Amino acid sequence: MRVGIVCPYSFDVPGGVQFHVRDLAEALIGGGHHVRVLAPAEEDTPLPDYVVGTGKTVPVRYNGSVARLAFGPITAGKVARWLESGGFDVVHIHEPIVPSLSILALWAVDGPTVATFHTSFVRSRAMQSAYPLVRASFEKINGRIAVSEAARETVITHIGGDAVVIPNGVFVDRFAQAPVRPEWQGTPGSPTVAFLGRLDEPRKGLNVLFEALPRLRDTQPGVRVLVAGHGDADAARSRLAPDERACVTFLGGVSDADKQSLLRSVDAYVAPHLGGESFGIVLVEAMAAGAPVVASDLAAFARVLDNGRAGVLFDVGDSVALADTLGGLLGDGARRQLFTARGLRHARRYDWSTVAADVLAVYETVTAGTDAAHHEAHPAKAKEPVERKSRVADVERVSWAERALRLSHRAGDRRERRSP
To answer: What pLDDT does 108 receive?
Structure first.
């Protein structure tokens, strides 16, 4: 199949949706399909040869994070030309309500269209302002996918209709076979724990982990915490007590290969997130690498961890519970081995070989249904290919979406001024 995939978020910075789009494209290409991806990206950003970047992006705050989006009449023209030249059998738009390339592609697409919803409901001014701009265009979507039950519930409740749940994928063998790094391995007296996430996103829960350290060190005095993620390490380190700083190592942003080795090497992975998660792909990555997982009991995390059978859960935001849960696991080698084995088995259901096959089944269903409907409406043209003309969104609609982005900026600025 010829597949066009649209990503709303910039490839300049790492993110769950970007990784999902990249890995789906590579899984489909590996299966012999022709895939092209359209995504925001600055001109000097290194991109895979199947990705087309659209240039300058704009940072927008929402859901406790910052996304870099692309919009405007020039970008709309790039989207239209990409669609017209692609000759795609199906166009797959990720996060179609995000005011970026996704909305532009949804306005312009004419042909079999699939949409994937990644997030649970976000109370964002930009999202709320953008939804009326695409509500009518949602009729173009022939197949809907949600990456989790939480994302599906958002579709049902706030958008209407339903979606089939197909989870995020992981190349399990890449994690299971990653080389172990001795400097990241623990010992019986000095176990290692990994945390991955942006240092400046409170919802990732790094402060909860830091608050748990004194109690954790009472039972595991030699514990070492390896923190991987972009952000200001000095600012994060300043939140630690002087005697705790030696046991926390900040690795900065890590490559895919280093992430795989990190998770393969440590004695446990901890995910103390506070909210805003609809899935939790890093939990699957940790399980695939053989790292026992300790995670806050967010609904999305509980589902990924099979309600505590594939990983250990603790109360969200409770640093005492985290210290006791993590300390107990680190001190019990047999229990760690049990969760390692369970996690490895459970992670297999998220392997891209399974996930990509499910996505392809959706593609085949919508293309067959769209072609059948076209042939029924135009029997004289039954043997002709369905003509796919792209429609560029008019400037008035673009300006409305840009106003939505500006509103989001102003709302974020007001929140910052009000914060202590």
So the answer is: 94
